[in-house]
Design goal:
The complex is a heterotetramer, with two copies of chain A (152 residues) and two copies of chain B (81 residues). Chain A has three helices and ten strands; from the N terminus they run E-E-H-E-E-E-H-E-E-E-H-E-E. Chain A is an alpha+beta fold and 152 residues long. In chain A, helix 2 runs antiparallel to helix 3. Chain A is elongated and about 50 Å long. Chain B is α+β, with helices and mostly antiparallel strands and 81 residues long. Helix content of chain B is 22%, strand content 28%. In chain B, strands 2-1-5-3-4 form a five-stranded mixed beta sheet. The radius of gyration of chain B is 12 Å and the shape is globular. The N and C termini of chain B lie far apart (36 Å). Classes of the chains: A alpha+beta (152), B alpha+beta (81). Strand 3 of chain A pairs antiparallel with strand 3 of chain C.
């Protein structure tokens, strides 16, 4: 079984975890007396997609590569924005309705940087980090989510 | 050479294994590994054109040379977040 | 002395408080199984502005009107974006370096709405809500911050 | 009529009071209250043109009629957040 995968230095923290994501700890990590703004993004499991009901999401993750890609996109964000600190965490395994599957916290001297970097980080994470969700519908069916691929 | 191919999500579900091993020529590239994969696991026929591949945890193109023991992964369209 | 000023219904929560802002409670408030994204913004007291050092900020607030305006801008945000729930809190009194003076949490079905609404809410709060900060500089001097007005 | 004028931040600091009372004509508007304020508190001369005013917790224009007991506030440029 996998344990938690982590990568942390003074200004960047990355985690893939089977446990609930501790957003308070992430906010403490990015807190800095050089920063005047912090943005926290949380992705949570939604019950309804259109009229279909989800009971939970099951995530699968290519952990070693996911940590590597998360590190790379944080480095790329650093080259675009002068943020102070950033923390990124993704759940793997089962995430029930209302729970957090992904969280990103960014602190910066000014708020525009924190907003832009946080939004770019979640947009980019969703495009390049090797993690997959399986919808577990209330009718008992299950379905891997692969944007752009529809089984025939 | 022998390379390990990790399978995730639908790819894992279709094959029924989380990883498989492929025996390849010594000059094999990622492209020849993909051809061998479809040959041995035809159930991946529809999905594979939508997948990207990595070698040693880096996204890679078909021309990428492989080596004995390297870690290839078949990466269906991702849906993290 | 003022007590905390509050205004809450099922989807909107507003507070002006002398105590530390409880962002965990705000995140619990906006959590909803209809939402897939939550954005939390926190404004914190920065130690350095250029090379000048701040020891703390002292906030003053026209509480009754501030609550009214915060309610109005949340209603206006609601007319612009279909967010699920929103919570807004502002400290008054002394806010030390590293502490949170303002926090805004927004949940929505999709992340773009949550990011846009949260950023618009903090931008608009800073323009229209009657709250003022006094910089308390490390050299002992103090200065009310009034954008666009410079004492001659 | 008598109206209460709340003072905040620099306005409070300059006058040395958090609120003052103004005696005004019965037809007084917010504009006439501002004129009376500068007359009695000339230290507000420079700041007042940069301030907005509210009547009963709503931003208001100079033409806004006042009434006995209404709550006027002098609102220097805000800096919350």
């Amino acid at each position: 079984m996998i344990d938690d995968y982590k990568c942390t230095d003074e200004t960047i923290s990355i985690a893939i975890t089977l446990e609930a994501i501790d957003t308070e700890a992430m906010l403490r990590f990015v807190n800095s007396d050089k920063s005047g703004a912090t943005v926290l993004f949380m992705g949570t499991t939604r019950r309804l997609t259109g009229e279909r009901e989800t009971t939970r999401l099951d995530y699968e993750c290519y952990e070693t590569m996911a940590i590597k890609k998360m590190r790379e996109i944080l480095d790329e964000a650093r080259s675009k924005w002068a943020f102070e600190k950033a923390s990124m965490a993704h759940r793997t395994g089962t995430v029930d309705v209302g729970q957090t599957s992904v969280a990103i916290a960014v602190s910066a001297a000014h708020r525009k940087v924190a907003f832009e970097a946080a939004e770019w980080l979640i947009d980019t994470l969703k495009q390049v980090v090797p993690i997959w969700k399986q919808e577990c519908w209330a009718d008992g069916s299950r379905e891997w989510v692969h944007p752009g691929f529809h089984k025939t | 050479m022998i390379v390990k191919v990790l399978l995730f999500a639908s790819a894992k579900q279709l094959v029924g294994e989380s990883h498989i091993e492929l025996g390849l020529d010594d000059e094999a590239t990622l492209g020849s590994a993909k051809a061998s994969l479809i040959e041995h696991y035809p159930m991946l026929m529809n999905l594979l054109p939508k997948c990207t591949f990595s070698v040693d945890q880096e996204y890679a193109e078909d021309a990428r040379p492989l080596y004995h023991g390297c870690e290839v992964a078949c990466i269906p369209p991702v849906s993290g977040g």
